[in-house]
């Protein structure tokens, strides 16, 4: 039987266009050890892990006449050096230069004639640091058969990369057009209703495709409340160009715990309150008149966790489940305490509803990595019409111990979430080793002031910390 893409995976290919590439990215910054960490070391490390990620050596093959969804086939011309690339900043490179490079790299769609992932080894950073920039298509990381590459190359203890091993992988023969057509016809006979859907999807009927996916994705769809009105209009919803801007914010996890200890709720509630306060200031800087009832609707895919375990510990995640919540962020509320209370109440309603476990079918991963959860969060967001939310906010609890790629210690990690059609901003949040890192991916035209929003995030956290409770 052919390894056919699911309806959800195929939709990410059908809905992609040059201005809205459907891949998730990440930026990890490493300290080079004394004996070095080179591009060749990274090639060796990734090459050793590909045995566990067969999807990373497969490409998509479309069916003649669009009689069925595409299939995964082994890439007989797979070239690791094509997918793991070397880049450099003019030394000593700073973070602004790095993140400008990240924006350019992540704005380019992946080549659908090859396996749908790339990694960039970026040298030239100050203090003898290097960066690893990854981009992986949403159709690849499903959390069931395939996890994100970062889940396998990072270890809790430093390890020698060793010498490159002989690659004994042998690709399976590419199926013929006749075989693909025969398989498609056989499946069409069994499920004739799919033929029209496949042809319509291939004809770029994006709305019909997305609606069909919403109806079939099951667990994720049931995780959302019925929405009877579209998301509020505003500058976050704009025509998306092909350019991107990317910036980051670094904060301390202890600050969020301090606010939580003073007021209750969860660390995630505090994170959303910080984002709400920043969005409020940003909207006003754009001249938006805010009433006290004004909201911005966020789609927030979250891991389901055990309330009795550590808030930002992967041990507290129940079966690595993901639930997608719609949350109206109260940007019209001037009081930061009330903003936090509103968000806490909204999130409590979601978790009390029992829908927090409704997305169980989405994710079954042995072990946990923030990059995988961000990818799954993007899949959840991509399954729904952008008309029902203004932006995506993924918040992934990460490990609080040091992680290493080979012997290189990872010092920072930032998610890069994709933009949906008509949405100018996506925010990814990850905790790691006592810190909380924000990655802000914006459209270059509609969000040229994304650096200002980053400053406002820091101000919003300071405002919450400084409240006389």
UniProtKB/TrEMBL annotation:
<dbReference type="Pfam" id="PF06974">
    <property type="entry name" value="WS_DGAT_C"/>
</dbReference>
<dbReference type="GO" id="GO:0004144">
    <property type="term" value="F:diacylglycerol O-acyltransferase activity"/>
</dbReference>
<dbReference type="InterPro" id="IPR004255">
    <property type="entry name" value="O-acyltransferase_WSD1_N"/>
</dbReference>
<feature type="domain" description="O-acyltransferase WSD1 C-terminal">
    <location>
        <begin position="319"/>
        <end position="465"/>
    </location>
</feature>
<feature type="domain" description="O-acyltransferase WSD1-like N-terminal">
    <location>
        <begin position="5"/>
        <end position="271"/>
    </location>
</feature>
<dbReference type="GO" id="GO:0019432">
    <property type="term" value="P:triglyceride biosynthetic process"/>
</dbReference>
<dbReference type="GO" id="GO:0006071">
    <property type="term" value="P:glycerol metabolic process"/>
</dbReference>
<dbReference type="Pfam" id="PF03007">
    <property type="entry name" value="WS_DGAT_cat"/>
</dbReference>
<keyword id="KW-0444">Lipid biosynthesis</keyword>
<dbReference type="GO" id="GO:0071731">
    <property type="term" value="P:response to nitric oxide"/>
</dbReference>
<comment type="pathway">
    <text>Glycerolipid metabolism; triacylglycerol biosynthesis.</text>
</comment>
<comment type="similarity">
    <text>Belongs to the long-chain O-acyltransferase family.</text>
</comment>
<protein>
    <recommendedName>
        <fullName>Diacylglycerol O-acyltransferase</fullName>
        <ecNumber>2.3.1.20</ecNumber>
    </recommendedName>
</protein>
<keyword id="KW-0443">Lipid metabolism</keyword>
<comment type="pathway">
    <text>Lipid metabolism.</text>
</comment>
<dbReference type="InterPro" id="IPR009721">
    <property type="entry name" value="O-acyltransferase_WSD1_C"/>
</dbReference>
<keyword id="KW-0319">Glycerol metabolism</keyword>
<dbReference type="GO" id="GO:0051701">
    <property type="term" value="P:biological process involved in interaction with host"/>
</dbReference>
<dbReference type="InterPro" id="IPR014292">
    <property type="entry name" value="Acyl_transf_WS/DGAT"/>
</dbReference>
<keyword id="KW-0808">Transferase</keyword>
<dbReference type="InterPro" id="IPR045034">
    <property type="entry name" value="O-acyltransferase_WSD1-like"/>
</dbReference>
<dbReference type="GO" id="GO:0005886">
    <property type="term" value="C:plasma membrane"/>
</dbReference>
<dbReference type="GO" id="GO:0001666">
    <property type="term" value="P:response to hypoxia"/>
</dbReference>
<keyword id="KW-0012">Acyltransferase</keyword>
